[in-house]
Amino acid sequence: MTDALGLDSLGLRFREALQSMYAGEPQIGTAGRQHPIDDSTRISVEEGMTLFSLCVANGVTSTLEVGLAYGFSTVYLLAALERNGGGTHTAIDPLQEIDWDGIGSTTASRLVSGSTVLTSGSFVLVEERSDPALSDLERAGQAFGLTFIDGYHRFDDVLVDFTLSARMCPVGGMIVLHDMWLDSISAVAAFIRNNRPDFVEIITGCDNLFAVRRIDDDRRDWRHFVDFPRG
Ligand SMILES: C[S@@+](CC[C@H](N)C(=O)[O-])C[C@H]1O[C@@H](n2cnc3c(N)ncnc32)[C@H](O)[C@@H]1O
Questions:
Q1: Are the beta carbons of 90 and 56 closer than 8 angstroms?
Q2: Among 14, 57, 134, 167, who pairs with 10 as Cys (CB 3.0-4.6 Å)?
Q3: For 109, phi and psi rounded to 5 degrees?
């Protein structure tokens, strides 16, 4: 049966999880308890399907996200990893338990354990602020084919998230920012367009996302700075 939301290309379990979440049904969190969810903390189906398609089209097997919450974006990214034959998704969120009752991580763990392709190591939660967490991941030698940044949305926090994530983005890898409707995020995008020649923009057709692909090493010298009018 055709899915009214447009989730047809996802595997059945991922589709069913998202249908329940978008319908606003209570979700299971820590200790198996059901919790109501609000409808303001989510990515849209269009945004989620764009993340899914970018991962599938590029054969990505290692994904990272800043900001888990109820786990909408996580479900799309896990669906892509399953489609690609397996991989690992790492989610950073210091408030997963405190603000979100563990719903995002519970959903991800359930989807991973019910998969014949994904394994128990396919979902990793880092319950810490993104700046130390990203530094630790870099120190551990991690690399990610796609990073989705949807955490604390202030300009300086997101620029730090991008800068640290870029160090773990190999040539060919992608970084996607959410919420281009915010001045803070469009300012980070303007900075990247003007100051990071090692990245090129990917046109996704999704106005609320800013996606870039790494095409080179960071070769800027220590004096480098280009002003970045936002237009
Ligand atoms: C808009 S929500 C993420 C929504 C999620 N991507 C989705 O599609 O369902 C933002 C998340 O960022 C988390 N967050 C806030 N401060 C953070 C920080 N310093 N580092 C990482 N995550 C943070 C919040 O706890 C919240 O879960």
A1: no
A2: 14
A3: -65, -40
Q: How far is the CA of 150 from the centre of ligand 1 (A)?
A: 6
Nearest CA to ligand 1 atom 14: 151
pLDDT of 5 reads 82
Indicate whether 161 pLDDT > 80: yes
- For the chain, the domain total comes to 1
pLDDT at res. 1: 56
CATH number of residue 137's parent domain = 3.40.50.150
Are the C-beta atoms of residues 68 and 96 closer than 8 Å to each other? yes
In-domain check, residue 5: no
Does residue 79 sit within a domain? yes
76 backbone dihedrals φ, ψ, rounded to 5°:
-65, -40
Which helix (H) or strand (E) covers residue 199, if one does?
strand 199-202
Read off the pLDDT of residues 70-99 as tens digits, 9 standing for 90 and up: 999 999 999 999 999 999 999 999 999 999
Ligand 1 pocket, residue 72 CB under 6 Å: yes
